[in-house]
Design brief:
Blueprint (H helix, E strand, L loop, with lengths): L1 E16 L4 E14 L2 E8 L8 H8 L13 H11 L4 H19 L3 H4 L11 E4 L4 H10 L5 E5 L5 H11 L4 E4 L7 H11 L4 E5 L7 H10 L4 E3 L6 H7 L5 E5 H4 L2 H13 L3 E5 L5 H8 L7 E2 L12 E2 L2 E3 L2 E3 L9 E2 L2
Parallel strand pairs: 4-5, 5-6, 6-7, 7-8, 8-9, 9-10, 10-11
Antiparallel strand pairs: 1-2, 2-3, 12-15, 13-14
The structure holds magnesium ion (MG).
Magnesium ion binds next to loops.
């Protein structure tokens, strides 16, 4: 079994601004696992504020030795071994997980949604993200997003109400709000959420810093809208910690170390009666298609990552009329086109 990887830089269509940062590119690492003439594709997307880089991914992946395993079907053991190489590195770990899943599905000749027994017609609609920007740009982006049935708006700076009001000048489409830990005071956060509830907002993601657990639990008890944890919930053990603090969790492959742990996180969250959202970073259609395999399981999706870049090198799951749409191809369902 061979592992290959090479760096790739994703070019964004628009400068992307959230509460903590602003950027025009995303560093990425492409991964391939080859065995028996079958290539499995994977990817690590690494927005700089999360701490991984092409350098850290290269260092990590160079320590992954797949030659000692007979084939990818020992995926549980392989991923446990990879997890022990070093702590952290969730995106680098995810890239190998995705490539192994792709290989296994291709060997079976089946897409993962079928292997998991999921109905491809039950995929959710996806939100389309509008970053923090000037009124003019927000209006323009909102008009461009008219195929989407729901918008996701980044808040957490000084112009929160202006952002929502500007979008409401253009459309009545439901909005989900992501504060990216931007609100620091719980009383102010509550009054913002109460205001949001009058503006057609569906839920609020990570309203306050993840360390302020008691404040977030206080907020959740009083909030008229569901509160979803994102930065607070990285991997499987975090799901239990989120119970009672959040109404739901945002699962992303680049946080969870890939499809296998994401699937477990979704099962645990649902068993606790929590809502599940499936999110992404800016990614090519490789990681998006991998996440899309899980999407019939979740309540909400935010899988617009490949739409936000201009140099996608994969063809896979797409968004049709605002809905995540799976393709009938084995593995994670991608073709390499670049
Ligand atoms: Mg978020």
């Amino acid at each position: 079994m061979k592992l290959r990887f090479y760096p790739y830089t994703l070019e964004l269509k628009h400068t992307f601004t959230v509460a903590v940062s602003s950027r025009t590119t995303t560093p990425d690492m492409m991964v391939e696992v080859e065995k028996d003439g079958i290539i499995g594709y994977g990817e690590a997307s690494m927005p700089p504020y999360l701490g991984e880089s092409q350098e850290t991914a290269r260092t990590f992946l160079s320590k992954v030795d797949l030659s000692k395993y007979p084939d990818p079907f020992l995926i549980d053991d392989i991923l446990a071994d990879i997890d022990r190489i070093a702590p952290g590195n969730p995106a680098a770990k995810a890239s190998v997980d995705i490539a192994l899943h792709d290989w296994i599905g291709k060997k079976f000749g089946q897409p993962w949604y079928r292997i998991w027994g999921l109905d491809p017609s039950k995929t959710p609609v996806t939100s389309f993200t509008i970053g923090i920007d000037t009124k003019e740009v927000v209006r323009q982006k909102t008009r461009e997003a008219d195929i989407y049935k729901v918008l996701k708006v980044k808040l957490g700076r000084e112009n929160d109400k202006e952002m929502i009001e500007t979008i409401r000048e253009v459309t009545d489409t439901p909005i989900r709000v992501d504060v990216n830990q931007g609100w620091k005071d719980r009383s102010q956060a509550l009054s913002m959420i109460e205001w949001c509830a009058t503006k057609g907002i569906e839920f609020v993601e990570q309203p306050m810093p993840k360390e302020q657990v008691e404040d977030i639990a206080w907020l959740r008890e009083r909030s008229p809208l569901p509160i979803i944890g994102d930065e607070s919930v990285q991997r499987l053990p975090d799901v239990r910690k989120a119970y009672g603090v959040y109404d739901g969790i945002n699962v992303k492959l680049m946080k969870s170390t890939g499809m296998r742990e994401a699937h477990k996180m979704i099962s645990v969250a649902k068993s606790l009666g929590m809502k599940v959202m499936l999110g992404c970073m800016t990614e090519t259609s490789c990681a998006i298609s991998a996440a899309a395999q899980l999407s019939p399981l979740v309540d909400w999706a935010d899988l617009d990552g490949a739409v936000l870049i201009k140099n996608d090198i994969f063809d896979g799951a797409t968004i049709v009329d605002g809905k995540v749409t799976l393709v009938d191809r084995p593995g994670i369902g991608v073709l390499k086109v670049g």
